[in-house]
Amino acid sequence: MTGKTHIAIGAAAALAVTKYAPTSLIGGMPALVGDASLLACLAAGAAGGLLPDTDVSTSEASRQLKRAWWLLVAVVASTFAADALLGAGLVERTVAFARAAGANQVAGIAVIVAVLACGRASGHRGFSHSLVAAVLFFGGAYLAVPELSLALTVGYFSHLVADLLNKMPERIFWPVSRGQSLGLCKVGGVVDGALLVLGVAAVAALLAGWL
């Protein structure tokens, strides 16, 4: 599937699930959806739909991730430079902000990064396209952003389901070495295009019904 198709399917799946998701969990646990806005859930589903393909250096997900990392590096470098030149205490404020974010958020981000890094190391449609990765991804997302964890994970899982339709197998039952594939379509083919149209139509219908 192309990146556009994964974005559309991920966004549609996230909207469909989060619309009926519980606003809180038993025992006072953080909400799966809570106060997350409609657009935030849509964006999270779209992002989740792309993330498994960070195992390919030429994919749209990898390009966007690289841009995000370079932006982060630029922000950190600028902060230290400004602090050194102006003595504005920016470094201390940044450290204080990081501490305020909490250990859960830091741990969650670390888990997500580890999942994507392991996927990159295992090759295309390897670890990152497995059920194990999806479960770990949900755990990381729940720690980092509980209210968007469901939308992110549904988008992520939708990618795995969509890729099962392709002729190229994916190791959805990793660490089993043999991959699975239904062999019904190819990237950029008729089925791929039809799923893109259906995904966009589903998003439009869900937005209209929600609003």
Can you walk me through this structure?
The chain has one domain (3-58, 102-210). Helices cover 67% and strands 0% of the residues. It has 211 residues and is an all-alpha fold. The protein is built from 8 helices and no strands. Helix 1 (3-18) packs across helix 2 (38-50).
Q: SSE order in H/E notation?
A: HHHHHHHH
Structural class comes to mainly alpha
Q: Residue ranges: pLDDT <50 for 5 or more in a row?
A: none
What sort of overall outline do the alpha carbons produce when their principal axes are compared? globular
- How helical, in percent, are the residues? 55-70%
What is the subunit arrangement here? Answer: single chain
Mean pLDDT value: 79
Q: How many independent structural domains? A: 1
Give the strand tally: 0
Query: What's the story with the biggest beta sheet?
Result: none
Beta percentage is: under 5%
Feature tags:
single chain; 211 residues; mainly alpha; 0% strand; globular
How would you summarize what this structure contains?
The protein is mainly α and 211 residues long. The chain is 67% helix and 0% strand.
Q: Which SSEs are present, and which pair or pack?
A:
Layout: H1 3-18, H2 38-50, H3 60-86, H4 90-101, H5 103-122, H6 131-144, H7 146-163, H8 190-210
Helix pairs in contact: 1-2, 1-7, 1-8, 2-7, 5-6, 6-7
